[in-house]
Design goal:
The chain is built from eight helices and five strands; from the N terminus they run βαβαααβαβααβα. The protein is α/β, with parallel strands linked by helices and about 170 residues long. α4 (about 55-70) packs parallel to α5. It binds shikimate-3-phosphate (S3P).
């Protein structure tokens, strides 16, 4: 297994913000799978969903993780919220490093993402309901795919970072 720190969790759980802060604290570089895919495809995630469809995006996510297994070590990897939904990806993520699942409540996600236009899966009529349904459907998969679960709702970034670094020390 590689020495990467992988952050998983639902949209709006703070993977990117936590990843940025963690990269300062640990002096490790940060890779964001959504950005990696956008750069490689020359399109935004929303454009990929609209033009190629969700399935194509999911294949790109698997391809991204496979490539990172060959290239990334000692890094922090922030993943798209749906990436661990594929069984294959949950297995690949564990090869890539230690998986930290940032667990968030649906209320917290709604408060953070209301008005967001960059997440194609939340653009429908009733985003609050969509968040609740999707999170409920994915919860067990996130847990199954993780080595460590960190509760993040209502916590400050300092508390979340401290939770992650404590777990890292315990596991070292
Ligand atoms: C998705 C989450 C998004 C992005 C895409 C699909 C999902 O990433 O990959 O919109 O299925 O949960 P974030 O979790 O960074 O918002």
């Amino acid at each position: 297994m590689k020495d990467n720190i992988i952050l998983t969790g639902f949209m709006g759980c703070g993977k990117t913000s936590v990843g940025i802060r963690l990269s300062y604290v640990l002096r490790r570089t940060l890779i964001d799978t959504d950005k990696w895919i956008e750069k490689k495809q020359g399109k935004t995630v929303s454009e990929i969903f609209a033009k190629d469809g969700e399935e194509a995006f999911r294949r790109m996510e698997s391809e991204c993780i496979r490539e990172l297994i060959g290239t990334a070590d000692g890094q922090i990897i922030s993943t798209g919220g749906g990436l661990p939904v594929r069984k294959e990806n949950r297995k690949l993520l564990k090869e890539l490093g230690t998986v930290y699942y940032l667990k968030v409540t649906p209320e917290c996600v709604y408060e953070r993402l209301k008005g967001d236009t960059a997440r194609p899966l939340l653009q429908g009529e009733n985003p609050r309901e969509k968040i609740r349904e999707l999170l409920e459907a994915r919860e067990a998969l996130y847990t199954e795919g993780a080595d460590v679960t960190i509760e993040v709702s209502g916590k400050s970034f300092e508390e979340i970072i401290a939770g992650i670094t404590e777990k890292m020390e315990e596991r070292a």
